[in-house]
Amino acid sequence: MAVEHTFSILKPDVTRRNLTGAVNAMIEKAGLRIVAQKRIKMSRAQAEEFYGVHKERPFFGELVEMMTSAPVVVQVLEGENAILKYRDVMGATNPEKADAGTIRKEFALSMGENSAHGSDAPETAKQEIAQFFKPDEIVG
Ligand code: RTP
Ligand code: MG
Questions:
Q1: Is position 64 within any domain?
Q2: C-alpha to C-alpha distance for 129 and 50, rounded to whole angstroms
Q3: Is-above-0.95 flag for pTM?
Q4: Is residue 19 in contact with ligand 1, taking CB distance under 6 Å?
């Protein structure tokens, strides 16, 4: 199995409740290494670009509002099969459907305020990482 990089965001509901360390503990316990990390306030333009794939969806406006409502922590995670592994660690988009022990089951407040983002495929991981990090900011 290949060592991969995936892109992660700890969303505003996490920073607002001071849960960055608690979520990071779950990430590290799962064997993923945080090889880049910064806390930023996402601009509207950044959020619109990041979630551009959803721009026709009814929840798009609400999603952009939520992502810009408080700081987020953007990260690059490294590990074997990191993309799928992190999706498993996050749990289902709807926290009511997320398995026990996942980030979203433990911490998410709702379908919108669902605590974490993780890339869904190698191509999107590459694009998303490049939107927020320069290559020399990633220290594996
Ligand atoms: P993400 O992209 O954030 O990792 O989440 P995901 O793949 O599990 O879900 P996706 O379908 O890509 O949706 C992106 C984010 O939009 C918000 N959302 N709200 N109100 C709603 O019905 C609704 N549906 C999605 C969530 O914050 C979701 O993570
Ligand atoms: Mg998604």
A1: no
A2: 10
A3: yes
A4: no
